[in-house]
Amino acid sequence: xxxxxxxxxxxxxxxxxxxxxxxxxxxxxxxxxxxxxxxxxxxxxxxxxxxxxxxxxxxxxxxxxxxxxxxxxxxxxxxxxxxxxxxxxxxxxxxxxxxxxxxxxxxxxxxxxxxxxxxxxxxxxxxxxxxxxxxxxxxxxxxxxxxxxxxxxxxxxxxxxxxxxxxxxxxxxxxxxxxxxxxxxxxxxxxxxxxxxx
Length: 198
Hints:
- By secondary structure, the chain is an alpha/beta fold.
- It folds into 2 domains: about 1-40; about 45-195, Vaccinia Virus protein VP39 (Rossmann fold).
- The chain has helices at about 5-20, 25-30, 45-55, 75-80, 125-135, 135-150, 165-170, and strands at about 65, 85-90, 100, 115-120, 150-160, 175-185, 185-195.
- Strands 3-2-1-4-5-7-6 form a 7-stranded mixed β-sheet, sandwiched between helices.
- The longest helix has 19 residues, at about 5-20.
- The termini are far apart.
């Protein structure tokens, strides 16, 4: 087999893999170009994030944690400008003020700490990827998912996209309500609400 044939076969396998495991990335890169467009670590404007997740900043319970806030921390900065106690974690972030440079699998979320947790196209997208790969890393994501839920204060909410139905459907209905909202035909967001414990 020639080098060119090996490259073509490899390209086709990668294309098929991406199509099966991440439709969003496949749509972004669905063309004849062999160079993929940038699709990870994008910085989204606070306005886009608020619109995507349907957030009403007047109803957010504090303190607020943005998981995967990005290097710029746009949403955290916007929320703080609006006098909300918001914090962000991201590997690309600097350890300054209300930001922490840390992997979301290693962060200590604490228990009963956060009024609202926000995660857009980051944590859950990686969780889905590792789940479809069945590579064992999905177990770490499942454990972290549960740590995040335990870190919600009573009455707190975790708002994220994309939805993760394979774990959301397993949550105890006496502790959490799960609201899945379709954004388009292949993309939905989720709001997990932790019930008040009296």
